[in-house]
Amino acid sequence: MPHRPTTEVLPPLSADVALFLDFDGTLAEIAPRPDAVSVPPGLIDTLQRLRHALDGALAVVSGRPLAQLDELLHPLRLPLAGVHGVQRRSADDQVQQLAAAALEDVRAAVQALAARLPGLLVEHKPGAVALHYRQAPESGPQAEAALRELLAERPQLALLHGKMVLEVKPAQASKGQAIRAFLREPPFLGRRPLFVGDDMTDEDGFAAVQAAGGLGVKIGPGPSAAGARLPDPAALRDWLARSAARLAPAFSAPPTAAS
């Protein structure tokens, strides 16, 4: 993976962009557990403004399942890619999900591994299973070795390495594949893509947008093929809020059921 120069001054977001955003570690800070993440104040309003300014060409592309993303982003209902591309909901509300053959025995093996190594957390997702080791970082190498051995004769499945998490998913699923599918459809079709992410699971997304003439933006340190970088999620949220204010200054979000 090439190292790129750190560029922490992004050009203003323009109205011809197709905007793709990761969630954990990108829009929101990573929490000790997936269910402990919080949505920062003002984020929903910013995303509403940007969706309006971009004529709907805004999608969240995440490792989380669609149902979790909808709950976190309520009342927004955005185009989404979940579980690293295993699930995808298009702008016209059509949902697709890739099949994950031979996953049930893998789920059982991952659960058994977590029982042997204290501090590991198993997260079962539609079409995938994740093993978090944030609470036991010393167990990470042993867990990874065990999963690689488990998948050695299962070419239809792949191991994805994120921040303190190992995930088994269908080999054909990726964030890059999901972004390319969005770019073939309205309202993303014909726009210049920009994808923001924070870890190794986002690298194929960076490659996809940059191959299409767009820009990948890496959040935080570490090697990346992304062409630009921001230091942390707070810096991204600030840039998105300033972009929303410039592109949609008169936008008034519709009232929600709670208002």
Automatic annotation (TrEMBL):
**Keywords of the record:** Hydrolase, Magnesium, Metal-binding
* Enzymatic reactions: alpha,alpha-trehalose 6-phosphate + H2O = alpha,alpha-trehalose + phosphate
Q: Is Magnesium there in the keyword field? A: yes
Q: Pathway, according to UniProt?
A: Glycan biosynthesis; trehalose biosynthesis
Required cofactor names: Mg(2+)
EC number, as in UniProt: 3.1.3.12
User: Among the record's GO biological process terms, what is one?
Assistant: trehalose biosynthetic process
Q: Which SUPFAM superfamilies does the record cross-reference, listed alphabetically?
A: HAD-like (SSF56784)
User: Molecular function terms in GO for this entry?
Assistant: metal ion binding; trehalose-phosphatase activity
Please report which protein family the annotation says this sequence is part of.
Answer: Belongs to the trehalose phosphatase family.
Stated role: Removes the phosphate from trehalose 6-phosphate to produce free trehalose.
Q: Which NCBIfam families match?
A: HAD-SF-IIB, T6PP
This chain belongs to the protein called: Trehalose 6-phosphate phosphatase
